[in-house]
Design brief:
Blueprint: H1 6-13, H2 24-48, H3 56-63, H4 65-69, H5 77-88, H6 97-113, H7 115-130, H8 136-150, H9 155-167, H10 179-258, E1 275-278, E2 283-286, H11 296-307, H12 320-329, H13 334-343, H14 365-368
Antiparallel strand pairs: 1-2
Length: 369
Amino acid sequence: IVVFSEEEREQMRKFTNKSYLLDKRSRRHVYLGLIDILLAYCYEIRVNEGDKNVESSWNIRKLSATLCWLEVSFSSIHDVLVSFGRRVLCYPLYRHFELVTRAFNDTVMILQLGKAAVLKCLLDIHKIFMESDPAYVLNDLFITDYCIWIQKVKSKKLAALCESLQKTTLSKSHMGLELEELEAAAVLVQEEEKALKAAGTVSKQQLLCSESETSDSEESSSTSSSETEGSDSDEQESSTSEDGEINSFQGTLQEERTAPLIDCNGSRQGTDASAMEVGDGKSKVSLQSTTPPGKLVEELEMQMQSAMRLSEQPEGLATAGCISQEQEENPVSEPDRFSEDAAGKGNFLEVSPKPNPLLFLCSTNEDED
């Protein structure tokens, strides 16, 4: 089953023929060291899948306590497995207890194949160490001697060694690194993380639902506010139009109220109070007042206009007010006044039978001056 290549044959030719005289204790140590070296080599092949690299020599010499410390005395196979397992879990890049068990199974298989398979593995280790600068010394100290010694070992002893290796058990509690407790704590952490993730997803869903509800409410409120703004704007427009109409109407009323009132003698007269029409012998006064009640001056002006009825003035006479003033200064008897009326000299001023004390007549101070 095991076939050596030409390179391996040439490599074995370079070895010198030696014989080793070992006592029982030393032989035991050699067998345990062989198991230690094979375990490190199996780890290297298992991790890198047979592809050698610059870390291959480091892995083998670091994981094997025999090659690392140069002088190690194991008392049992179990001690070898514990030492290898602790180193696998501490030193290399890939640290896992499953790698320890896989390397253990591979070593058992190599021992079952016989001393030819063990020699082939030792030749491969010798080649790896020869390509590494600091590790080639280990060939002179250990690997070359193992390659020469294994060729003279009886196959029965290797079979017995394989059987004792198979009977040995290795668990995580033997490592002394509290692996079971750490794994239980890691499982609890994973469960907590899963629970937190589940709670986070639930909270995110609740937040999304609440955000969607708030967005819907905001949209509805915005639409309602826009509708109310539109209605408010329509009401404002209607109110402004109505206010404009009311203000214009009030402005016309105010203009009519504040319009100057001038009578025939230059006194102030309300244009909105009356419209005077003079005819042949009849005076028609149409009193059209739109002023509201409550102002004393306007009421007085209305009383003045109602008391005065003007007709056409005769030539050579002054205003009706002047005539009435002269009549008051030079009283004439009623028969004479009526005689003048009877003579038919024209139109005349009719004065109310009761003198109105509020009637303001033009003064003749200018003529006197």
